[in-house]
Amino acid sequence: MGDDSEWLKLPIDQKCEHKLWKARLNGYEEALKIFQKIKDEKSPEWSKFLGLIKKFVTDSNAVVQLKGLEAALVYVENAHVAGKTTGEVVSGVVSKVFNQPKAKAKELGIEICLMYIEIEKGEAVQEELLKGLDNKNPKIVVACIETLRKALSEFGSKIILLKPIIKVLPKLFESREKAIRDEAKLIAVEIYRWIRDALRPPLQNINSVQLKELEEEWVRLPTGAPKPSRFLRSQQELEAKLEQQQSAGGDAEGGGDDGDEVPQIDAYELLEAVEILSKLPKDFYDKIEAKKWQERKEALEAVEVLVKNPKLEAGDYADLVKALKKVVGKDTNVMLVALAAKCLTGLAVGLRKKFGQYAGHVVPTILEKFKEKKPQVVQALQEAIDAIFLTTTLQNISEDVLAVMDNKNPTIKQQTSLFIARSFRHCTASTLPKSLLKPFCAALLKHINDSAPEVRDAAFEALGTALKVVGEKAVNPFLADVDKLKLDKIKECSEKVELVHGKKAGLAADKKEFKPMPGRTAASGAAGDKDMKDISAPKPGPLKKAPATKAGGPPKKGKPTAPGGTGSTGTKNKKGLETKEIVEPELSIEVCEEKASVVLPPTCIQVLDSSNWKERLACMEEFQKAVELMDRTEMPCQALVRMLAKKPGWKETNFQVMQMKLHIVALIAQKGNFSKTSAQIVLDGLVDKIGDVKCGNNAKEAMTAIAEACMLPWTAEQVMSMAFSQKNPKNQSETLNWLSNAIKEFGFSGLNVKAFISNVKTALAATNPAVRTSAITLLGVMYLYVGPSLRMFFEDEKPALLSQIDAEFEKMQGQSPPAPTRGISKHSTSGTDEGEDGDEPDDGGNDVVDLLPRTEISDKITSELVSKIGDKNWKIRKEGLDEVAGIINEAKFIQPNIGELPTALKGRLNDSNKILVQQTLNILQQLAVAMGPNIKQHVKNLGIPIITVLGDSKNNVRAAALATVNAWAEQTGMKEWLEGEDLSEELKKENPFLRQELLGWLAEKLPTLRSTPTDLILCVPHLYSCLEDRNGDVRKKAQDALPFFMMHLGYEKMAKATGKLKPTSKDQLLAMLEKAKANMPAKPAAPTKTTSKPMGGSAPAKFQPASAPAEDSVSSSAEPRPDPKKAKAPGVSSKAKSAQGKKVPSKTSLKEDEDKSGPIFIVVPNGKEQRMKDEKGLKVLKWNFTTPRDEYIEQLKTQMSSCVAKWLQDEMFHSDFQHHNKALAVMVDHLESEKEGVIGCLDLILKWLTLRFFDTNTSVLMKALEYLKLLFTLLREEEYHLTENEASSFIPYLILKVGEPKDVIRKDVRAILNRMCLVYPASKMFSFIMEGTKSKNSKQRAECLEELGCLVESYGMNVCQPTPGKALKEIAIHIGDRDNAVRNAALNTIVTVYNVHGDQVFKLIGNLSEKDMSMLEERIKRSAKRPSAAPIKQVEEKPQRTQSISSNSNMLRKGPAEDMSSKLNQARSMSGHPEAAQMVRREFQLDLDEIENDNGTVRCEMPELVQHKLDDIFEPVLIPEPKIRAVSPHFDDMHSNTASTINFIISQVASGDINTSIQALTQLFQIESLAREASTGVLKDLMHGLITLMLDSRIEDLEEGQQVIRSVNLLVVKVLEKSDQTNILSALLVLLQDSLLATASSPKFSELVMKCLWRMVRLLPDTINSINLDRILLDIHIFMKVFPKEKLKQCKSEFPIRTLKTLLHTLCKLKGPKILDHLTMIDNKNESELEAHLCRMMKHSMDQTGSKSDKETEKGASRLDEKSSKAKVNDFLAEIFKKIGSKENTKEGLAELYEYKKKYSDADIEPFLKNSSQFFQSYVERGLRVIEMEREGKGRIPTSTGISPQMEVTCVPTPTSTVSSIGNTNGEEVGPSVYLERLKILRQRCGLDNAKQDDRPPLTSLLSKPAVPTVASSTDMLHSKLSQLRESREQHQHSDLDSNQIHSSGTMTTSSSSTANIDDLKKRLERIKSSRK
Q1: Cβ–Cβ < 8 Å for 883, 868
Q2: CA 1425 from chain center: how many Å?
Q3: Could you tell me which of 434, 498, 1093, 1645 has the fewest CB atoms within 10 Å of its CB?
Q4: Cβ(1789)–Cβ(1775) below 8 Å
Q5: According to the model, what pLDDT value does residue 824 have?
Q6: pLDDT tens figures, 255-277
Q7: Nearest to 738 by CA among 783, 705, 784
Q8: Is the dihedral of CA 254, 256, 257, 258 positive or negative?
Q9: Rounded to an integer, what distance in angstroms lies between the CA atom of residue 1605 and that of residue 1727?
Q10: What is the DSSP letter of 430?
Q11: Are 43 and 77 in contact (CB under 8 A)?
């Protein structure tokens, strides 16, 4: 049992994996218990077992496995994460459970599989089970089939996909194993239960016996529809609700049915497609044309056999269909006609939607063939046309069908109507919209009055079917004129109709129709349309409202209701009809007088024609009152207007009377039921007065009122004809003006464009300019509604007039027509209005286009023309195409019937001659515009072939094809294109061009659609293969399109579609889908409803976004700025925006000026960051192209819309370059004033400028470059750093311009590149310029190479990326270039490198050809002869170039001496200060520009330095001379050459005389710009060295020891004051940390470091603004992490903790609460107490604000916490006295007391001394005196304050920046430490004692090992030292001090050094340097 007890102790998961079966059994049992206990499905407990579940089911021990299966089942049922295990567990069950002999195991296995299906993992389970069917073990196969059967039985065919199962069924029936065959039979029966006869075709080929058995089983099955008995988790809640409803009874039954309805599985889907085209007899096409009918019959029979296959593979059936069509149409043998019809039926059934493209050709032919009387022919034709109808939509064939309806032959009419009736049955309310119903009803209404009874009956049936499908509400408006008998007949037919979609469709439609009408009451709504006639008229309540809708027709027509309109059309009440239009007989004058006298006062009628105007006026006033009080029903309108027209009538001379008269007419029209008869009485008079100055307005008002009563179209027609039949030009122009206004108020629907156009043409020809102007204004208004097609009617006008018209149109462009405000019948209830509006807008738009006169051109498309187009000779083909273009041009607008033209043009789309292809595309474009929306029917046969052309290899052909597709889509909308499989078939083709163009097109179009056909899902598998395409562009386009597919199809469907992919692809794609899901744009919102839909889907308006529903133009004008959410999707709403964007500022100029006053750039917080994120996350296109495409421009426009002033954006994106110049001028003006805005939008500005680089206009380019120069100067001043994103989307395009032919541009670009180096690391610039050298443009290559040379010259070798070697090899390649300029540039660049780098160049450039090498050597020799020329030339050429910092490049080579945390370095590289880390320049890291500017200072300082003759030092150093020495500057130009200045100072530092060294270092730190360059690492080493030197006891032995210490002290002060404040503070903190950590370090050392820190603290008030606080706080954080409070308290001295507190306190005091914002660089703030400490201090300081005087603040360097209260001071003093009292610390205590008294001279220590003994008091006083003497008298530093007070110098705050450590090419640190190193080496060479050991603290990185033995060469030694630097940093606390800093001053003879000496010394130093490299 020993073993047992072992595993019993293990945790459950380990037991489950134990090798002992008992342990596992126990583990599974316990797991099962746990699983049953966990209530929360999302509990983290579940995740622990994720990896084990597979082991549960695949256990090798059968007993244990059973328990495991039980546990697994509970796990799957309850765990939220179980889905992740589906694949592995189910495959485990299949392979390891289904083969088990125990039935229980199998049952559990099946249960687990079903449970996985329940938790929504059906697909994965099915996949594994289907794999199991291929297993060799029959047991497993049987179990898999059984599982599938159970799953289908329980979950139903919605969840279990039947197609894959049915595919393998025949194979299972053939199995040798009886068990498998039996199981297959069972599953076949189960499948049949769900899909019935759809299963027969796939199983028709199995063994006949088996089939018979199956048939028997099938017959026994119950007939009811099966219902699933088990539901997915997501459906279970729904199911529970349904059950509750059912138990509640009532209506719920129906609800339940709906929910459970099983999807009808289409047998077609389960079949394999058969390819038949290749199987056609070879001579088929000859035979079908044969003279003998028998041969034709043979050919047809061959086809008939082939098309019997139930599913045919897609292909090009055009020729076959054409041949069959010919037989149907032309063949004289009726048998063959029937046979051909059967073949067509077979094709349509087998191809389904794929046949749609041929439907349009065949339908007219079949319909016309119905003239045949023979029943078998008629039946064959009926079957054919019905089958064809199912492959297309009614919309597509409507034109053809309607054309045949007018045929004279009654049989054709009858059969067409019957076909329409059958077609309607397949429709639903949504697929049969009003726009389609209208023309059909109109045609059928003619037929119901036909003389032939069979035609009438067929028409009744068709109308009845329509009524059933869409409901009475939709059809009634069209049946208004039908008499009662016929109406009843229609209704009777409608009741008999059985719809294909079941009755529900019709009812649902009706229900829907009722919903939006609040006006209807429940009574009429519930009654349903059919029962309408039963409602008796006396129920006025509900019905008052109904008739308006029923009979009133579309409300926009604005016809008033009849006086007593209570009855509905259903009741056939006479008055009900009058709602449509008030028709009034003309009354005689007597009758009128009689009627008028009833309602008017008698006096009024008598004085109507009085000769006294006053009487007439009084009469008019009475008349008006009477009219105002009259009731609508009692007002005899005609009588009243006749009275007004009575003499003097409209010839009234008194204007007052006339005005009243006109006003009364308006009142009557508004208040009464005004008829056209009444209108005709007054209109003539109104038109006559419209030009009158005084009465014109009243006349217009009356006309508007009449237009409202009698409809604008009729009124306008009357008014126009009257105006132009008279001569008065004033009347004509005013009439036109009134009409312009009226159209805006009433909308355009119903107006007769043709009639208008002829009148407008007359007006345009008028001599009077006012008439012409009014006509042009009217045209402008019409343009709003009709669109650009309007212009076509006026193309033959005179050019001057045409330009005026164009200008008017241009004004209107981008505006959207206003919503109509009148003409909506005011009498119908508001509720009804709304209801009608919903359906109405369709008509309005299409009306406009319908009204355009269309020419029939089919007769011009002769067979000769068609054969010309198909001729072998391309010239003749071209002639044919030219003719077609001519025909279309001439016709302008054409009817949709274009005969054989589509097939002819289709053939030309794949013409071998690309010019003809382009010409064909242009014709198709014309065709689209000419045919308008009717082009829809040609989409399948002509549109899809255009898409195929997108795969052409020629760019221009593709562009033409894309333009054509867009022109078509603009007319047709996208629905037609996306329906059917055509588009997915195109996408399937593996042509990269086709794929990328098509996907690009879809990505542009899909976002604008509100809904798409379901067929879009067919494209998804091909979209997925595009996402993995080899071609990068295809992948890119597919990624762009992905979110828009998802927008329409939803994530679920898309994810489901990945099911069939390989696992690797699937994972990748799911990741992409997740990404796309995050970026998925919202669907465009439904358009705002307006009563008339302005531009239909039709007018091919330029300003309408392609294919977007026209309503956008309405809604978008209301909200010019796109919705922010949508704006993210590239071009979702931006399209609509660009719609009116182009021409908005056409308001008054005054308004414009107001607009332009504000800022041009709007600062959007985090806008730039968000844009970068979007680009990173691929939410927007990455700015990367060879030429900018529209989508990039659109995207930029969208991004700019939020942060650039609207008017400026219009200028920036204008098509005219002058506007770009304007924009640039504005940007230059605002550059200084809007710095923040410019920087906030910098990425967008730079992107916009890159677009300008692609313009051809030089002036724009020059202006852009000018702006860029100013911009980069500004960025430099602002210390801005370009981000990677900005750089990569701008620099490559700027570099393109460096190759411009114009010198001046090249110069500007170079100047800009120069300035860019100041805001972007030169090393990164290098890479971009390097790319530029690969250009084909030789000028660009040469300029880029020169630029590279300049970079190397200015910034040294470290700019070369990726490494100097690789870069130089690239450059050297160009030495062999064809172009001379490029060769020279390459040679010059390499010579430049040689001058900097010496002979090593030859190693770096690798092997050159002999010729190239000799050219290079020659060039190097030549350059050596003129050494001084180079620097001067450089100065002339590049006045702009100043040194820049490349923080990033430094990060690549972190200096070895850096031991800061990486975070710090990151901060440096991110630092916003461009002075951050300077680029390495030649050997030194110092940016010496300032020295150059400052040479005066240097010169006067020079003589102070003592120079030594160092010849004998250098003697032993033998370094081989390089062949040609790098140019060494002479002493004369020494001051102009920074490097030599440094060299000189270095030689002084390396002097043998310690004083000279110190003086030189002091001098180094006097040059501020140099001092500031010292990095943290360097300063740390320097301070370490100097402090160690001060503490070195051996210095006291020297004669001038005190002097040296004083000098060092002074130097320390200089270093503290002049260095970069951040770096020195950082260095001191690190040094303090190191010294406290080091065991060997003396307390004195730490004390001096702290004193330096105090000094720094004192300087803080002046320098705080220049300090990078984040970095300092990071250092303090690291310090506090290493030394928590407790640890610091354990230190012997309490100075460190006080120093730290003082520093923090001072920072807090200076920065206030803001200091807490500076903790950004600290990763984990909880690691130290820093944050807590700061918060405490802040709180404390808030509590005690203002309690300290300024004086105390000045003494801010005190170690005491300044804000401390008196109590704290007492505590502090008490502690000091405690120390003095203790034996060990007495001295330290005294020193502290001395310090304290010195700092706080007024501090009172008396109370402390009082309590002590006399002896103690005198001891303290004596001690203090001794210290004072020591410090003041002797001036010894080590025992004194470290920094003597008299040396304090006020510190000049220096603009600091974080300078990261800079390395030379070997990655080593170069800085003062190295120069100190050299100094030591030189000393060693002189034999100074370097070997004496001492136990003092180390000089850290200067010297790391004890007693270095003398080395042969100093360079070797230097190398060894440098290599030890890094180690020494980490280990310095353990290393011993190498005490070579004891210098005797007398070792060397000093003599003043001559010029030559210095020169020599420099050369040697340089040699050391180059060898070191």
Answers
A1: yes
A2: 59
A3: 498
A4: no
A5: 57
A6: 444 444 445 566 667 677 888 88
A7: 705
A8: positive
A9: 40
A10: T
A11: no
The 10s digit of each residue's pLDDT in 1334-1360 is: 888 888 999 998 888 888 888 888 888
Contact 1949, 1480 (CB under 8 A): no
Find the mean pLDDT for residues 511-530.
37
How far apart, in Å, are the Cα atoms of 1454 and each of 982, 1319, 1477, 1900?
60, 21, 11, 19
Q: How far apart are CA 324 and CA 329, in angstroms?
A: 9
CB 918 within 8 A of CB 954: no
C-beta of residue 1299 within 8 angstroms of C-beta of residue 1343: yes
pLDDT score for 338: 92
Phi, psi values for residue 1204, rounded to 5°? -125, 140
- Name the 3-class secondary structure at 1848: coil
Tokens of 109: 């296995």
Torsion of CA 1368, 1373, 1375, 1377, to 10 degrees: -150
How does pLDDT run across 1233-1289, given as a tens digit for each residue? 888 888 888 898 999 899 888 888 888 888 899 899 999 898 888 888 889 888 999
Alpha carbons 163 and 1032: distance in angstroms, whole number? 35
Mean pLDDT of 1082-1101: 48
Identity at 1145, one-letter amino acid code = P
According to DSSP, the residues that pair with 1161 across neighbouring strands are: 1204
Tokens of 318: 């055009």
Q: What is d(CA 467, CA 696) in angstroms, rounded to the nearest whole number? A: 49
For the range 1183-1186, what are the long-range contacts, defined as Cβ-Cβ under 8 Å and sequence gap of 24 or more? 1183/1247, 1183/1250, 1183/1288, 1183/1289, 1184/1289
- pLDDT band at 1870; cut points 50, 70, 90: low
- CB < 8 Å & 24+ apart, contacts of 233-237: 233/118, 233/119, 233/120, 234/120
Task: Mention every residue, 6+ apart, whose C-beta is less than 8 A from residue 1864.
Answer: 1358, 1480, 1483, 1485, 1870, 1973
Q: Is 469 helix (H, G, I), strand (E, B) or coil?
A: helix
Q: CA triplet 1722, 1724, 1728: central angle to 5 degrees?
A: 90
Could you tell me which of 1010, 934, 948 has the C-alpha nearest to residue 982?
948
CA-based nearest residue to 222, from 252, 188, 247, 189: 189
Element (H, E) at 917: helix 914-931
CA-to-CA dists, residue 1892 to 1239, 1419, 1594, 1908, angstroms = 60, 54, 11, 11
If you search the block for the tokens 């299972």, which residue do you land on? 172
Angle between helices 1380-1397 and 1410-1425 (to 10 degrees): 60
Closest CA to 1539 of 1675, 1437, 1396: 1396
Q: Residue 328: what residue type?
A: V
| Angstrom distance (rounded) from CA 662 to CA 702 | 6
- Using CA atoms, how far apart are residues 720 and 1738, in angstroms rounded to an integer? 84
Q: Which of 1438, 1442, 1430 is nearest to 1490 (CA)?
A: 1442
Phi-psi region of 711 (alpha: psi -120 to 50; beta: other; left: phi over 0): left
Q: Count CB atoms within 10 A of the CB of residue 34.
A: 17
Q: Which pLDDT does position 85 carry in this prediction?
A: 86
Amino acid at 1591: L
Contact (Cβ atoms closer than 8 angstroms) between residue 300 and residue 340: yes
- For the chain, give the percent of residues with pLDDT over 70: 75
Nearest to 690 by CA among 657, 648, 720, 647: 720
Helix (H, G, I), strand (E, B) or coil at 1144: coil
886 to 645, 879, 881, 1158, 1855: CA distances (angstroms): 55, 10, 9, 53, 76
Residue 1590 and residue 1648 in contact, taking contact as beta carbons nearer than 8 Å: yes
Give residue for tokens 């790391």.
1904
How do residues 861-896 score in pLDDT, each as one tens digit? Answer: 888 888 889 898 999 999 999 999 998 888 878 888
Do residues 1250 and 1312 touch, judged by C-beta distance below 8 A? Answer: no
Res 247: pLDDT? 66
